[in-house]
Amino acid sequence: MNTHKKLIDLLKDFDTAMLVTRGVDGSINARPMAVAQVEEDGQLWFVTERNSGKVSDLMLDSEVAVTMQSSSKFVSLSGTAHPSDDQAKLDELWSEGWKVWFPEGKSSDTILLLRIEPSQGEYWDHSGLTGVKYLLKAGKAYLQGERPATDAEANASVSM
């Protein structure tokens, strides 16, 4: 499996992510976000509040990072955020669970879609057989006082 496809497959394993933006004062801000959709080309969609701090951050600097983590899988993307009022896309993505944040439903004026266009990504996948192989390598390296070799199947940097 090529690294680009592997990265996109890993993205689809996550339902939440941390969206990292640069604040008005230059600070770095990270916020948990529900992943609305992962497209086949790796673009991510989120739904947010139009008047939120993250949207204010994006007005000054649209470059973002998105990170995802489980106990054995890790993904990091960097790219550009694009706010969108695409009603057809919102209709496609809408989840009744979002009524917690948008009680008026998908017709709420406060809903804004965020499309993240990734420029590069990295992953570390130590799940399944790959994880077992890594644990064996790490154990051997530990006993020998060395660092374990990285495995291109488990770790890669990908240009999108």
TrEMBL record:
Q: State the source organism's domain of life.
A: Bacteria
All copies of domain General stress protein FMN-binding split barrel, residue ranges: 3-148
TM stretches of this protein: none
One Pfam family this chain carries? Pyrid_ox_like
Name the PANTHER family on file.
Answer: PROTEIN BLI-3
> What name appears for this protein in its UniProt entry?
Pyridoxamine 5'-phosphate oxidase
**UniProt source species:** Stieleria neptunia
